Amino acid sequence: MKRTLIFSLAALIFPLCVSPVFAQTVDTKPQTGKQVKPQFTEADKKLIIKSLLEQKLQIKQQIPTEPAKEKLVIKLSGKNLDASLLPEFPQVEFVLLTDDDIKNYKGRELDYREFEKIEFNGYNVMVTFTHNNLARGFFPGKSSATYEYYKINGKWLNRMLSSYIAN
After folding, report:
1. What residues contact 28, with CB distance under 8 A and at least 6 apart?
2. Which pTM was predicted?
């Protein structure tokens, strides 16, 4: 009986003692206890765009190790994206497409990415990143994923909330 009681008390007290050790500080609450909305700057937006392009396109793995005559060309919709927000990678060229470029494309296939939404919600950033493939004579396809970015200890982290593929 005493053993069971000791183990029960230990099971209740242990999480209370250990949880502060593993807790992470979120940048939304200063030491005074008042909630302060974090700032979302253009530098933060650029960092998130770079992070997502590296993660989703695996740019670093596609860049040739030897200097090549041709660069890796990545087509992006310019709809919700300004060229000043694009990161610079060696051997990579980003091409921003206008709505007219996309509508009037005459080639066999147009494969491009789009930041459909980059929205700051006060404490986190919601990003919808889409891969569009407009294939002529084939099945056009679209895949999309929504990510939530949040700042912990001054660093933007993300998690995927949802994704879908449509043909």
Report:
1. 35, 36, 37, 38, 123, 151
2. 0.70
